[in-house]
Amino acid sequence: MIEELAGRKTFDPKLYAEKDNKGKQLAIRILANSLLVKSGDYGILKPKEDKKCGDIRLKSRLDGTIVNFEIEASGYERFLLNFDGKYSEVNVPMKNFDAIPDGYFMCVNSGDSLDFVPKRFYMIKVSDIFKSNTKSNVNKYSDGKKEKFYKVPSQLVLRYEWSEKYGTYKLIKSKHHR
């Protein structure tokens, strides 16, 4: 029988150093090229470094509203499978989403270059994560133990692709939900 973790795997400082900073940099590039920021209505606040939840925040210049984003830098293959909607559910790590109930979980491709505008990303509303079931499975980083994840239905994932024509990101349907 496979041992089950109580929630998330143990914090891995090596993995954090390898992925976290690049993931935040990619997300900032994405958000800087979004209509929210380009319009001047929102500004990007300095990223938080508390290793909890809510890595990047946008602040409304109109009313001070804060929009929180928890960032995940996913490996190219898994990112692409989720982006294309090849799985019926997307695994979302068990993070402290209670801290950002009106926020978003944003997944970027860790294989993207920091020299260019990332071509695509996906997001999930935290409110949709809360409505999802949790299940356990073994994964690449769980040391052979079952790790618990939120299993968000693929049709609730918001997928965005860069449009050279419009100079911003456009919401698209996954290849499997068109």
Short summary:
The protein is of the alpha+beta class and 178 residues long. The protein has helices at 13-32, 35-38, 76-83, 126-130, and strands at residues 42-44, 56-60, 66-74, 89-93, 104-109, 120-125, 133-138, 146-153, 158-163, 168-172. The chain has one domain (13-177): Trna Endonuclease, Chain: A, domain 1 (3-Layer(aba) Sandwich).
Keywords:
Trna Endonuclease, Chain: A, domain 1, alpha+beta, 178 residues, globular, seven-stranded mixed β-sheet, three-stranded antiparallel β-sheet
Structure description:
This protein has 178 residues and is α+β, with helices and mostly antiparallel strands. It has one domain (13-177): 3-Layer(aba) Sandwich (Trna Endonuclease, Chain: A, domain 1). Helices cover 21% and strands 33% of the residues. The protein contains 4 helices and 10 strands; from the N terminus they run ααβββαβββαββββ. It has helices at 13-32, 35-38, 76-83, 126-130, and strands at residues 42-44, 56-60, 66-74, 89-93, 104-109, 120-125, 133-138, 146-153, 158-163, 168-172. It has a 7-stranded mixed beta sheet. Strand 9 and strand 10 (168-172) form a beta hairpin. The chain is globular and about 45 Å long. The chain starts with 12 loop residues before the first helix and ends in a 6-residue tail after the last strand.
Detail the topology: elements first, then pairings.
Elements: H1 13-32, H2 35-38, E1 42-44, E2 56-60, E3 66-74, H3 76-83, E4 89-93, E5 104-109, E6 120-125, H4 126-130, E7 133-138, E8 146-153, E9 158-163, E10 168-172
Parallel strand pairs: 3-5
Antiparallel strand pairs: 1-2, 2-3, 4-8, 5-6, 6-9, 7-8, 9-10
